[in-house]
Specification:
Radius of gyration: 30 Å
Strand content: 5-15%
Order of helices and strands: EEHEEHEHHHHHHHHHHHHH
Shape: elongated
Largest sheet: 5 strands, mixed
Length: 368
């Protein structure tokens, strides 16, 4: 293996390599580092006519261009690998690092399944050390609209939320994106639950419309509504008692609860945990209420997006096509409320005599 130097303009990228997105700030940082310290690891290229094609190291090659360097260290490899074998090698080099985005992984898996004879998701999963479910969920991301895919690529929308959104019709995906862009969600977790709620609503619109209910069903719903609202109002009436307890002097409270402080604290912890769980459930209800409104705007929404159905049909009809199964995103699991530890009373600290402060020593400056 010999390291040599080649002119930048004699090297070209592999147009079919799996990576498509390169974070600009990270590239600039790498370019600055190379300009200052040089290239630590040569890139790998193969001869392709009068030029050289990158086998590994496109990010370093791009950074050299940003740094306006005219030459780069390379290792020229001579291999007899097929294009697919080189592609899979490139995927393997990047997939277990932070270099590939979820969308790049999805497209890479899709290409292997489409172009490699008899390939199935379980085979792809085994080849790259992933679970079959991991591969299937990545493939599901290909049902996202192009605009949402861009946000997933940049990391603005997390993978878990993207998987839930991908299960929606294109119309509902656009509605979710509109709410997200307007700042309707405090974080990715809220987006996950909203998208999941909307998916549940897609095929259940008719059953929830009051006009289509029988008189008995309407009466039962009215009773449930009245009872639930009354219960929440009763809970709010407890605010006065809690506020009074919060403002009480701790020393007087200790005297009033003498012999029962620990017991009463456990009682308050149970109340606090119940409030946390109830609040989470009401937040879920809010997601369903908002999703219901969106679902009403798309009464003909199908369980599977038109794009996904069209792609699945084409895949099935193609000769020698690999069989794939649509991955179903799992329901988001609620986060369990953290257990509150009963604080132990601290031992009274003895006041120490103040010591005179030693004059501060000036630390020698260091350079990273």
């Amino acid at each position: 293996m010999t390291i040599t130097t080649l002119p930048i303009d004699q090297i070209r990228r592999n147009e079919r390599q799996p990576r498509e997105f390169f974070e600009p700030n990270a590239l600039q940082e790498l370019a600055d580092s190379i300009k200052r310290f040089g290239l630590m690891q040569p890139i790998e290229v193969r001869r392709d006519g009068k030029q050289y094609e990158i086998v590994a190291g496109e990010r370093r090659w791009r950074a050299h261009q940003i740094a306006e360097l005219t030459e780069i260290k390379v290792i020229v490899t001579e291999d007899d690998l097929t294009e697919m074998e080189r592609f899979k090698r490139s995927v393997a080099e990047n997939i277990n690092r932070a270099d590939m985005t979820p969308m790049e992984e999805a497209r890479a898996f899709r290409r292997i399944l489409d172009e490699q004879e008899d390939a199935e998701p379980k085979d792809v999963a085994k080849e790259f050390g992933k679970s079959t479910q991991y591969v299937m969920l990545r493939l599901a991301l290909l049902d996202l609209t192009e605009e949402i895919q861009q946000h997933v690529n940049s990391g603005a929308i997390g993978t878990q939320a993207a998987v839930q959104i991908a299960a929606l019709t294109p119309g509902n995906q656009s509605a979710v994106l509109k709410k997200w862009a307007a700042g309707a969600f405090a974080g990715d977790n809220e987006l996950v639950h909203f998208a999941y709620a909307l998916k549940q609503q897609q095929n259940q619109v008719v059953a929830m419309i009051v006009e289509d209910m029988s008189p008995e069903e309407r009466e039962e719903r009215q009773r449930e509504r009245a009872t639930t609202r009354k219960n929440i109002d009763r809970i709010e009436q407890m605010l006065g008692l809690l506020d009074e307890l919060a403002k009480a002097d701790p020393m007087k409270l200790a005297i009033a609860l003498e012999g029962e402080v620990a017991k009463r604290l456990e009682q308050m912890d149970r109340v606090a945990d119940a409030v946390t769980k109830a609040r989470f459930n009401v937040r879920q209800a809010k997601a369903h209420a908002e999703a219901r409104e969106i679902a009403r705007l798309n009464p003909d929404a199908e369980h599977q997006s038109l794009a996904a159905k069209k792609a699945a049909t084409a895949k099935t009809k193609a000769p020698g096509a690999a069989k794939t199964t649509q991955a179903k995103p799992a329901a988001p699991k609620p986060k369990a409320p953290a257990k509150r530890a009963t604080p132990k009373p601290a031992a009274p600290a003895k006041a120490a005599a103040p010591r005179p402060k030693a004059p501060a020593k000036h630390a020698a400056s260091t350079t990273a």
